[in-house]
Amino acid sequence: MKFNIKSDSIHDISADIIILAVDDKNQIILKSKLSVASNAFLSNIINTNDLKSEVGASLVVHGDKTFKRVMLVRTGSLKLFNAEALIKITNIFSNVISKLNIKKVLLPIEQFFNEHISAHAGTEFIVRELINASYIINSLKTTKAPTVSIQTLLQYEGSAIKEVKLGLTHGSAVAEGANLTKDLGNLPPNICTPTYLATVAKDIAKQYGMKTKIFDKKQIEQLRMGSFLSVAKGSREAPKFITIEHSLGLKKQKPIVLVGKGITFDAGGISIKPSSDMDEMKYDMGGAASVLGVMKTIGALKLPINVVALIPSCENLPDGLALKPGDIVTSMSGQTIEVLNTDAEGRLILCDALTYAERYNPELVIDVATLTGACVIALGHHATAIFSNHDPLADELKAASNISLDKAWHMPLWEEYQPQLNSNFADMANIGGRPAGSITAACFLARFAKKYHWAHLDIAGTAWKSGKDKGSTGRPVPMISQFLINRSELKK
Ligand code: BES
Ligand code: MN
Ligand code: ZN
Description:
This protein is α/β, with parallel strands linked by helices and 492 residues long. Helix content is 35%, strand content 20%. The chain has helices at residues 36-47, 83-99, 119-133, 161-186, 194-208, 217-222, 226-232, 286-300, 346-357, 373-379, 391-404, 437-446, 477-490, and strands spanning 2-6, 17-23, 58-62, 69-76, 104-108, 151-155, 211-215, 240-247, 256-260, 262-266, 306-316, 328-330, 336-338, 364-369, 384-388, 408-410, 428-429, 454-458, 464-465, 471-472. The strands form four sheets. Strands 7, 8, 9, 10, 11, 14, 15, 16 and 18 form a nine-stranded mixed β-sheet that branches. Helix 3 links the parallel strand 5 (104-108) and strand 6. The two termini are 32 Å apart.
């Protein structure tokens, strides 16, 4: 997908198709920019009522002398036309276009800007959604889907050209980051192993001038990450602890540390999961994949901010040597953990990464994890759960989520829940019983994040879709990227 910004007037740009929005009153929004002849030609068509009235309805017609083809697309009432509606109709017209044999699309973007949608945000959402909608699963089918390479001409004659350019830059960086996240999630677990994730980290670091260090099993032992390693014991796949450092911020600026859960397959271990849908546990590295996606985004943007990515990665499998229910392990922090359920493994690998994060004297730490089925019960598949030991940080993430339309919801992390983790034999148990399962998982992590401001994002419901549209969503790359963009602008 290629984009160019064009500031010529509509009639002076040649393309295979032009996209024109029509409101609920049958008015072409850009009618003042069209010739008398084009207006007459198009209003005749609209008056036939072939263009349905629902938002996103579209109609492709062969053009008059000036346009080869015109796609009319319904915005509905302009008072209600907001960024969510813009994303929805962008998705629809993108799908229609991809089925036509077309190379060049003329998209006047000003028609989508209004008091709810700024030039920056509007351009960003359009670009993000066009890239998102054109994503093809890099499948291992032998017959490949044909790749269509479309050039989109973003036509804009107004005065906010700087904002439009910034929207294009941000939108494509965020979407390309999210596409990497999707690619990694969708890969099968026999390919996307901890070693594979380490290779991807090295590639990103090389491409964008970041530093990377990959710790192998021996080095992880030297770090005394006993909790992380206890999970890896049941697998013959080598565990990796992956670190990437992006340091384009000021030298003395404390880094923001992102921690991603990188379980490349979660069978549950000895507390084995039921077999139905177990394949979906290849997505249990969704946190790691989104942290890598965000690193790609901020690398492409050369974002002037210090960010460190930490990814503990291994498989969780049953084996003769695997971790057992009842085992007590010692974390890097020194705290002991009684493992009552080996399927609550995410927290066991994350806690050591959270302790390791202390070495950076971080400004704040955000971990991202497909952590609990209970989170899906609480919020379904629409919102990522935000937990934090610092309310202003949760508010800041929520604000970034609102701006990027990557939904999230602030959940409680009250002390009252902590006793559910009591153990008679160790400092804590790794599970807290059925009530409030996503909260007690966060409570567990909080015990390892006491030395800094920290937020935990549970993406169990949002990282991938099941059913016939099974596939990774690339979330929450938009939210975290927006958070970092906001932060880098504050620091200017
Ligand atoms: N990776 C799973 C969480 C998960 C399950 C995410 C289903 C998305 C869909 C995690 O490792 C896990 O198994 N959690 C357990 C915790 C329980 C044993 C306390 C769960 O949620 O069942
Ligand atoms: Mn599990
Ligand atoms: Zn898991």
